[in-house]
Amino acid sequence: MDNMEESLISLNSTNITDNILNSPKTNNSNETIKCNGENSISESNLKIISSIASNLEDIIHDNYNIYKNLILNTDNFSSIYLPCISIEDYLKRIFYYCKINISTLILAIVYIDNFCELNGYILTLNNIYRIIMASCLLSIKFNEDICYGNSFYAKVGSYSVELLNNLEYEFYIKINFNLLVKESYYEKYFNYFSRNC
User: pTM higher than 0.70 for the full model?
Assistant: First the structure.
């Protein structure tokens, strides 16, 4: 994406790029919180996940206020049913059960930004969960050393394997098959979400 620095999750209503581009670097805590006694999620990662969720929720809220009378995005990513889980809890679920690094989750957010910018896509409560799952699936396959089959990720996301395969394929096409993100650009996202914990 040539003009990635011009918008971060701009989504036609909210632009937080200036905040990201001007974010100072932050130090990360190594405190951990135990989840069910097996794996742990560090306190700093929980804060970053919360920051990401908060930003997505703000954007969705802004989009709702602007576009509430329009019919938007009637495609595979849109669902008529809303899940009974918050965006933050959904991100934690993916992070915990897929055993991913925080860099993979941030990379997924970069992909969502690219997806929306390239396609003029507007995030809503009806599409955010499927978009998160598709972007996380691609970022896991690109960034993680250990990957499971799509049947595993479908269970984590609560989707059928067929639907998840379709979402992954469509998302990948709509970001022009571009999974590579420059390190300096990734760091801007990381610093932004770390600072806003």
Answer: yes
